[in-house]
Write a structure and sequence with these properties.
Blueprint: H1 2-8, H2 20-31, E1 36-40, H3 43-53, H4 55-58, H5 64-78, E2 82-85, E3 88-92, H6 98-116, H7 118-129, H8 133-142, H9 151-173
Parallel strand pairs: 1-3
Antiparallel strand pairs: 2-3
Length: 179
């Protein structure tokens, strides 16, 4: 589809008046109409989005202890640049860039492959590490926050972070105004 190819060409082709949020919404519409992207700018706006999507989990205020736990979880999540929850990409308006979207989209794609094609998912993870064990180990050494994850989750995080870095570097080298 030529229109899709034009959308993903190097970022020099993106109109300069297009901000990152509008670009992501346009691109996401081309990639998948079923993947939602939501934007938040603080813990309160994030809570509203989470409750809107899953009131049973995030809207519970049965008691003060439960509310304190939920508030703490939401507060921590609101400090993130971006995250994915239940197949929805949440982007912090104050922190995200174009690579953040692709990072989270990578998690969704990997989750779909893991669920629907586990053999391919495992092969993909092995291919990522093929000849890059040293690079992966250095990355893991510098990202201790992932030390409690399974090895496959660590490799997945390495892959999506590498992809995010690539996208950000491409956008930056193109002098794009959307990063």
């Amino acid at each position: 589809d030529e229109e899709f190819k034009a959308t993903i060409r190097p970022f020099k082709t993106v109109p300069t008046n297009l901000n990152t949020e509008n670009f992501i919404n346009m691109l996401n519409g081309k990639i998948s109409k079923s993947i939602k992207v939501k934007y938040f700018d603080n813990a309160d706006s994030l809570r509203a989005l989470l409750v809107e999507e899953d009131a049973d989990t995030w809207g519970k205020k049965n008691n003060a202890r439960n509310e304190k736990t939920l508030s703490s979880q939401i507060s921590k999540l609101s400090e993130n640049v971006a995250f994915t929850h239940n197949g929805i990409i949440y982007l912090n308006k104050n922190k995200f860039n174009i690579g953040s979207y692709f990072h989270e989209l990578g998690h969704i794609i990997m989750a779909m492959e893991k669920a629907n094609n586990p053999e391919y998912y495992t092969k993909f993870l092995n291919d990522i590490l093929n000849g890059r064990e040293g690079e992966f180990n250095n990355w893991l050494e510098n990202h201790k926050e992932y030390s409690n994850l399974t090895r496959s989750d660590q490799i997945e995080e390495f892959a999506v972070q590498t992809f995010e870095d690539y996208i950000n570097n491409r956008a930056e080298s193109a002098g794009s105004s959307i990063i």
